[in-house]
Design a protein that fits this description.
Strand order of the largest sheet: 3-2-1-4-5
Strand content: 15-25%
Helix content: 25-40%
Number of strands: 5
Number of helices: 4
Largest sheet: 5 strands, antiparallel
Radius of gyration: 26 Å
Structural class: alpha+beta
Length: 148
């Protein structure tokens, strides 16, 4: 029985090594360098705003970068960056149990995506009630169009 067990163990060990089951230093460095080449998405402070003025109207897309120097195609990128920087969590979602006044602020909708303060941003906005109007207005210069 010993003669059979040893060759089987050696063969299985060789197969595991050949299939990448061994963790040699060379394998680890290859894995590290390949994972470093994977892009991580938008840089911190880079946002894309899609604004829809009303039903049936084409979306307007704006880009904003607050990473180094405020830049982008918003009417006032510096004001947008300053307004966002002055808030602890400008892209916080509304709480589901918040009671809102039943006001209609307009048909505009928007979606903001990107990265802010190290966190991903994906926020949908509208002006369909008092809470959503206040949320829209807090983002100010980031959302060109009507306020308050």
């Amino acid at each position: 029985m010993r003669r059979i067990a040893v060759p089987v163990l050696l063969l299985s060990s060789a197969l595991v090594t050949a299939c990448g089951g061994s963790s040699t230093a060379g394998d680890a460095s290859a894995q590290t360098s390949s994972s470093a080449a994977v892009p991580s998405g938008p840089a911190d402070g880079e946002l894309v705003v899609e604004l829809v003025p009303g039903p049936g109207e084409a979306a307007q897309t704006y880009e904003l970068s607050c990473a180094v120097t405020p830049a982008g195609d918003l009417p006032d990128p510096a004001a947008a960056c300053a307004q966002l920087s002055g808030q602890p969590d400008p892209f916080a979602a509304l709480s589901g149990d918040t009671m809102c006044t039943q006001l209609f602020g307009g048909p505009q909708t928007a979606r903001v995506s990107g990265r802010w303060a190290g966190e991903p941003v994906d926020l949908e906005l509208s002006r369909t009630d008092g809470c959503r109007i206040a949320q829209w207005d807090r983002l100010g210069a980031l959302l060109p169009g009507p306020t308050g």
